[in-house]
Specification:
The complex is a heterotrimer.
Chain A (H helix, E strand, L loop, with lengths): L3 E8 L1 H18 L6 E6 L3 H16 L5 E4 L17 E2 L11 E9 L3 H11 L6 E9 L11 E5 L7 E5 L9 E7 L1
Parallel strand pairs in A: 2-3, 2-5, 5-6, 6-7
Antiparallel strand pairs in A: 1-9, 8-9
Helix pairs in contact in A: 1-2
Chain B lengths: L1 E2 L17 H18 L13 E6 L5 H12 L3 E6 L11 H10 L4 E6 L4 H8 L3 E7 L5 H15 L6 E5 L6 H12 L3 E5 L15 E2 L3 H5 L4 E4 L15 H8 L3 H4 L7 E3 L12 H4 L6 H26 L1
Parallel strand pairs in B: 2-3, 2-4, 4-5, 6-7, 6-9, 7-8, 9-10
Chain C lengths: L5 E11 L4 E10 L2 E6 L11 E3 L4 E4 L1 E6 L12 H10 L2 E6 L10 H13 L4 E7 L12 H7 L3 E3 L8 H14 L3 E3 L4 H4 L4 E2 L2 H6 L3 E2 L2 H16 L4 E3 L5 H12 L4 E5 L1 H5 L21 H12 L5 E2 L8 H4 L16 H11 L4 H8 L1 H6 L16 E11 L18 E11 L2 E2 L13
Parallel strand pairs in C: 1-4, 1-5, 6-7, 7-8, 8-9, 9-10, 10-13, 11-12, 13-14, 14-15
Antiparallel strand pairs in C: 1-2, 2-3, 5-16, 16-17, 17-18
Classes of the chains: A alpha/beta, B alpha/beta, C alpha/beta.
């Protein structure tokens, strides 16, 4: 893979904190409370984001909402088109998904194909009442009719750019979000 | 925790000889992920949709074939199957001819079991499909050893440094051979025991230790792996009788006493109850024989998944 | 005098004295015999037809004691014509045809057929070897006297030693009375039955049924003792193991009349070459361990092993395109033997004189033919001219044998046979030389 360099910074650590604070509130409002609410992070960055959102809901509402994680590798539609072999991560949904309001959480919403795969994966576990989508960054360029219910930040990007989210849980020194281009 | 398949680029799975620690670990990690699919309410992912897996069994097998079949279906692959009985192999067609015919039907992966060692290697040189060795003669049975290692790792948390006793007909066992290759690579101490007629001369060259009695093998063992006595494959000159075999080399509760308290007992199946193992042990608290069967599906899913990537990438 | 066919081979290095030396000389040939080896060409030879051998090695034609000519019965693999051509191309002027044809060469009629067909074959002499027992089954003696009269030069007990020790004794006794040498394969069939490779480190890994080297040693010891009991000699066709070499040395020490040979492939390949399941490595006896190869080479250096036979066993490629364990053993060898062996000489693994004598005087002595395998006055003018500094790679498809199984494929070879004289006449080589085309 070629080297990337930063084109512009989207959010610093504080920006991400504030976006997540806002997203947590919106999620509870959207669901009209925390009843039957469950958060599912999409591997990999969605997993720590789900945990952070759950922590915020706990602080605000005093409720532990169930959290889970899914890996969508086995549901991807681009597995056999010559990409390097993907890494298969862990899927853990320890609660009954049927009848809950399940929120899929990812770091960046782009073509929508990951979300499509995540929808298929979740449905294999049961029949949620509804599925919502929360993303930290929506960068546009959708290829499927998919939209996020809760968005941290909406940014305009070009297709040659990539959006990179760094989180301390994933080994970064500091949280941050930036648009990158090929060096 | 993620399971890397990054290290895993296989054209074929022919055996465990020469497969390094990184690759075995990656395959076992991936198998662990695959196992989770089997625990879901809907035990299927669309990953291999549109891929065709062909089972070509030139030697009778029920469980291995079924295990591969379940694995393929859980990944949404289409399967077809040819078994030797009633097939054209009896009409004097050569193995290669039959395999070329199968290939013409366009499978991405060919899973073969054959009574001649090296048959999968032979086909891998002539066919474009990926070949999986599901047991070739007395040579190798790589997915069996992988599922054994997965089971051990799951139960005991590691493979390195464990004392693994393999007892029985080592000479005629492809399960033993693949396990010796795999387990020694992963750093386990493999001990072998059985009648001298069934222990190949110089087998210690492969990194295993030959011990004289079953008691020496089970002493301090973390794992005791019993091999099936393959009556159909042996001449009458390997052991005098079932009765004698059981008394000298059968695994009984008594013989497990000197093993580690949390020892696990394994058997590749099918079991000859009362010959190499007593029912009491086979069904006892230390037995993981049925876990092995469950893990077999997971390991075969991992193998098919990795190979399907190769065929997909090549096209 | 004027009807005499004369030929002179000029200016080569001529191998003489049991291959111990190569001297610069001209070789004079008249009516199929060597009439002189000289540095000064007699004046009446000045205008005779000549072959320029300047810078070349002029050696006795090679003799192979063990060749599968596949005729009668296996002509889709090879026939006498193509085998004799392949032999000539590889420098062999005499090949001894194994008796395990179909039908087995155990009666005069089969021997006569082979003799007749070989007289028409434009290449090496083909000497039939008869079966010592009917059908090579080890139950009844064959009519060895009749076989000898029809042209058999020896009798063989077949691929393995006879199971019955008493029968083995009788074979030696009867063969002595009809004056035929006995060839034994020196392999205990009880131990080797159903095996496809050598029992050793490679078979441990590959899990294929394997024969231990002791199978060769026990059979050799028994056959050696029986030959001694019968007051005759035995020739072991293929000694391939250190254990076999030990027995051979012991028998020689004890005064048993024993000679022994090996094959080019047992001098060049080991059990490790089986690892890829390449069916060309499926030979009988199987490829052995490194230590075995070294012991056999040492025996050859010491003059304990005195012959090298190609064990040329042609097959079609289809017959080798099968599972290793189901594959019949054998490799072609007539056209790769000399090149492979001279390469071992170049590597310093074997001395040239031992290699040459094992291909010439050694086998001639086993056949009790002192007019073959040597360039000397009165000897049969079976002579080859070898460009011995050329290096090339073995390529099965360029060979004259119809067999397509070439273990030596791609291996480095030294020396090219430029001229092959059989009975003083130059053999013409024509590719595609089988009588009947089966393809």
């Amino acid at each position: 893979m070629s080297q990337l360099k930063m084109a512009r910074r989207l959010m610093d650590s504080g920006g991400i904190q504030r976006a997540l604070d806002r997203m947590a509130i919106q999620l509870v409002e959207l669901n009209e409370g925390t009843e039957n609410l469950a958060l599912v992070g999409i591997h990999r960055a969605g997993v720590p984001l789900a945990q952070r959102l759950a922590d915020r809901i706990k602080r605000a509402e005093g409720v532990d909402v169930p959290i889970g994680m899914i890996d969508i590798t086995l549901y991807r539609d681009d597995v056999f088109i010559g990409l390097p072999q993907p890494v298969v991560g862990r899927t853990e949904l320890d609660f009954d998904v049927t009848n809950c309001t399940l929120v899929l959480i990812d770091d960046v919403l782009y073509t929508g194909r990951t979300v499509r795969a995540a929808l298929d994966a979740v449905m294999d576990f049961g029949r949620p009442d509804s599925i919502r989508l929360a993303v930290l960054v929506d960068r546009g360029h959708r290829e499927l009719p998919i939209a996020a219910d809760v968005v941290g930040a909406t940014v305009k990007t070009s297709k040659v750019e990539t959006v990179e989210i760094e989180l301390t849980e994933m080994g970064a020194a500091m949280d941050g979000a930036a648009v990158m281009v090929k060096a | 925790m993620t399971a890397g398949t990054g290290e895993l680029t296989f054209d074929h799975l022919l055996g465990l000889e020469g497969m390094d620690q990184t690759r075995i670990t990656a395959l076992l990690d991936l198998s662990q992920r695959m196992k989770e699919i089997g625990e879901r309410p809907l035990k299927k992912v669309p990953s291999l949709r549109g891929k065709t897996v062909c089972f070509f069994f030139v030697e009778p097998s029920t469980r291995t074939k079924m295990s591969f079949g379940v694995a393929a279906k859980r990944l949404s692959a289409d399967t077809m199957s040819l078994t030797a009985s009633g097939s054209s192999l009896k009409k004097g067609e050569t193995l290669l001819d039959t395999a070329m015919n199968l290939q013409a039907m366009g499978p991405d992966i060919l899973v073969i079991r054959h009574r001649a060692a090296g048959a999968p290697h032979f086909l891998s040189k002539h066919l474009s499909a990926s070949i999986v060795n599901a047991g070739d003669g007395r040579h190798e049975h790589p997915t069996q050893a992988l599922l054994d290692m997965l089971t051990i790792r799951e139960r005991l948390g590691r493979l390195e440094g464990l004392n693994v006793a393999i007892i029985g007909d080592i000479a005629n066992s492809r399960v033993a051979r693949s396990n010796i290759f795999g387990l020694t690579t992963m750093g386990a101490n493999v001990r072998l025991s059985g009648p001298a007629t069934m222990i190949p001369k110089g087998i210690d060259q492969l990194g295993a230790t030959v011990v004289p009695s079953i008691e020496d093998a089970t002493d301090g063992a973390d794992v005791v792996m019993m091999l099936r006595i393959q009556k159909e494959r042996m001449g009458s000159d390997l052991f005098p009788s079932d009765r004698e075999y059981h008394r000298q080399f059968g695994l009984t509760k008594d013989r497990l006493r000197n093993a580690k308290p949390n020892v696990i007992v394994m058997h590749p199946g099918p079991i000859n109850r009362g010959v190499e193992i007593t029912p009491e042990v086979a069904d006892g608290p230390n037995s993981v024989i049925l876990d092995q069967v469950t893990n077999g599906v997971a390991v075969r899913m991992a193998v098919l998944y990795v190979l399907a990537h190769r065929t997909g990438g090549a096209k | 005098m004027s009807t005499e066919t004369r030929l002179v081979i000029r200016g080569g290095r001529v191998v003489v004295d049991d291959a111990t030396k190569a001297v610069p000389a001209h070789v004079l040939v008249a009516d199929g015999r060597v009439t002189g080896i000289t540095n000064d060409l007699p004046s009446d030879w000045a205008s005779v037809d000549s072959i320029d051998a300047t810078g070349r090695l002029v050696a006795p034609g090679l003799i192979c004691l063990r060749t599968h000519v596949c005729e009668p019965g296996f002509e889709w693999r090879e026939d006498i014509r193509s085998a004799s051509q392949a032999a000539a191309a590889g420098g062999f002027t005499t090949i001894c045809a194994r008796p395990d044809t179909d039908p087995v060469n155990d009666v005069r009629a089969v021997t006569e057929q082979i003799v007749t067909r070989s007289q028409l074959a434009p290449g090496a002499h083909v000497f039939p070897v008869g079966a010592a027992t009917l059908g090579l089954k080890g139950e009844h003696l064959s009519e060895m006297g009749d076989l000898r009269d029809a042209g058999c030069v020896a009798v063989s007990t077949g691929e393995t030693s006879l199971r019955s020790t008493r029968m083995m004794r009788r074979v030696f006794e009867y063969a002595r009375s009809v004056g035929l040498p006995v060839f034994s394969s020196g392999e205990d069939s009880w131990l080797s039955n159903g095996t496809v490779m050598h029992e050793g480190q490679a078979s441990l890994r590959l899990g294929m049924s394997a024969v231990p080297p002791e199978g060769e040693a026990t059979a050799m010891f028994r056959d050696g003792l029986m030959a001694h009991l019968a007051e005759t000699s035995v020739h072991f066709q293929r000694v391939t193991t250190a254990a076999g070499v030990r027995v051979l040395r012991r028998l020689l020490e004890d005064g048993v009349q024993v000679t022994a040979g090996t094959t080019p492939h047992h001098l060049c390949f080991t059990e490790d070459d089986v690892a890829t399941f390449d069916t060309n490595t499926r030979v009988d006896p199987p490829l052995r361990s490194c230590a075995d190869v070294e012991a056999v080479r040492q025996a050859l250096r010491d003059g304990v092993i005195t012959t090298i036979a190609t064990d040329h066993s042609p097959m079609t490629s289809i017959e080798k395109l099968v599972e290793y364990e189901f594959c019949e053993p054998g490799t072609t060898g007539l056209e790769s033997a000399l090149g492979a062996l001279l390469n071992l000489v170049r590597e310093g693994s074997l001395p040239l004189n031992r290699v040459l004598s094992a291909l010439t005087t050694g086998p001639a002595n086993v056949l009790r033919r002192h007019d073959l395998g040597r360039i000397a006055e009165g000897a049969v003018a079976d002579i080859i001219v070898v460009q011995d500094s050329i290096s090339w790679r073995a390529k099965g498809e360029q060979m004259l044998t119809s067999g397509e199984n070439q273990l030596f494929e791609g291996r480095e070879m030294i020396g090219q046979v430029e001229v092959t004289l059989v009975d003083g006449e130059q053999v013409e080589l024509t590719p595609g030389g089988r009588n009947v085309d089966f393809r």
